[in-house]
Amino acid sequence: MKKSLFLIVFLIALGIFIFQPMSYSGRDGETLFLNKCGNCHSESGEAPIFGPVKYASSQWERFFKRKKHNRKKDISGEVTDEELAIIKEYLIDHAADSDRPIAAGLR
Fold first, then answer.
1. Is the pLDDT of residue 104 over 50?
2. Is residue 90 helix, strand or coil?
3. Domain count, the chain
4. Is residue 55, in this structure, part of any structural domain at all?
5. What is the rounded distance in angstroms from the CA atom of residue 87 to the CA atom of residue 94?
6. Is residue 96 in some structural domain?
7. What confidence tier does 60 reach under pLDDT thresholds 50, 70, 90?
8. pLDDT tens digit string along 16-37?
9. What confidence score (pLDDT) does residue 20 get?
10. 6/51 Cα distance (integer angstroms)
């Protein structure tokens, strides 16, 4: 009886873990940046190639605060507010003046 109760509880917990909505964190900021922003900001795109180290963290903060991207292209249909917040965090965390500067896609 105890073994079957444990198995049922385990399977329920596993099901909750597997079927919970996906959220992005950590390195997923880089994945989002490369997938969402890389569509335009790549060698074949029209926008210039760039990565987090292009600007200092304060410059990224101003960029998002002033919604500068919207001046050139409306990305609201391509990037959700949640994804944009994660991308912003990634860019700031890996900016030129951060303790972990990184060029997107490079290791």
1. yes
2. helix
3. 1
4. yes
5. 11
6. yes
7. very high
8. 555 444 444 445 888 888 888 8
9. 45
10. 48
User: Residue 36 is part of which domain span?
Assistant: 22-107
The Cα–Cα gap between 24 and 94 comes to 16
Q: Which two tokens stand for residue 2?
A: 């105890």
Residue 86 tokens read as 């994660």
Domain assignment of residue 9, yes or no: no
User: CA 9: distance to chain centroid?
Assistant: 33
**Lowest-confidence pick of 4-13, 67-76, 89-98:** 4-13
Q: What is the DSSP code (8-state) at residue 44?
A: T
Integer distance in angstroms from the first to the last C-alpha of the chain? 52
Tokens 């963290």 belong to 57
d(CA 64, CA 3): 54
